[in-house]
Amino acid sequence: MTLVVTGGAGYVGSVCAQHLLDAGHDVVVVDDLTTGHEDAVPAGARLVVGDVAEVADDVLGAGGVDGVIHCAARSLVGESAEKPAKYWHGNVVTTIALLDAVCRHRVPRLVFSSTAATYGEPESSPITEDAPTRPTNTYGATKLAVDHAIGTYAAASGGELGAVSLRYFNVAGAHAGAGSALGERHTVETHLIPLVLQVALGQRDEIAIFGDDWPTADGTCVRDYIHVDDLAEAHLLALDLLARGDASVIEKAGGHLVCNLGNGTGFSVLEVIEACRRVTGHPIPARVAPRRTGDPGVLVASSARARDELGWKPTHTDLDGIVADAWAFARSRAAG
Ligand code: UDP
Fold this sequence. Notes:
Blueprint: E1 2-6, H1 11-22, E2 26-31, E3 46-49, H2 52-61, E4 67-70, H3 77-82, H4 84-104, E5 109-115, H5 138-156, E6 162-168, E7 170-172, E8 175-177, E9 180-182, H6 192-200, E10 207-210, E11 222-223, E12 225-227, H7 228-243, H8 248-252, E13 256-261, E14 267-268, H9 269-280, E15 286-289, E16 298-299, H10 304-310, H11 319-334
Helix pairs in contact: 1-7, 2-4, 4-5, 6-9, 6-11, 9-11
The structure holds uridine-5'-diphosphate.
């Protein structure tokens, strides 16, 4: 198939693009390179530099596109509180323009990078797709709005458009393939594992633990860490499902299937820091800091639907293995 990956110069998008190429697909990456990196675009993919809303019509209008994987997004929770317009425009308005182009040019398949942030503070754990969606931050609200929009476009398309929203939990690790290493390279880093590894690299003195008085076994927040390679595989399986002639699962879902993606196992902040200590051999000083605004205590996915409907099974479920891949990537970046 010929597939367009928006945000294919970013962390998740570049790994998805690599998996698609490895599976023999033709890949066109669309990225404005504001947070992505040109050298992260896998060799073999064609790069179109531009704002998704501005170039979608040309890229899809050229014809022959079998599907879009839409990863391009503004994704900093803290920033989304300070600059809501950047998030409503960057995530919602942009995606509506993309959806319009998808429908205008009759692209039959769409896979969207959604997020656990659509759920907000969960009432029960693990979180299923039927759980209430009450995002506690603007980022999550914009992603939820896009999920709703996709559902309505798919339903109104009369079967012409099939879509899958994948709600990622905590994506981590790195892809190590032939000649390329693809991992997290955020200019503003807010995620736990890369921050802890920065301590091991001597780039920061200590890691702040955001609260140790949560109602969890060791008092620190629990998250569901999923390896980026497992995540990318789910995108390929979603495309397969959409490409199958008997896409009854998609029909039953009204043209739009929502699936959580996580390992189904939660690890606490302290467990992550311990794993980083084991993997790096560095003592990694840590200090308890106040809770971070908007953080739920526990976020763990039920991935039963992804397993049942997509046939997905995460293979990198060991926390030390996930950290080891992130560490290899961080060290290679630090070595230049
Ligand atoms: N966290 C932390 N210190 C940090 C960064 C994150 O204690 O410097 C915690 C955060 O409160 C959350 C977990 O680590 O419970 C994962 O945070 P991250 O930002 O990686 O992902 P999120 O769950 O917010 O999407």
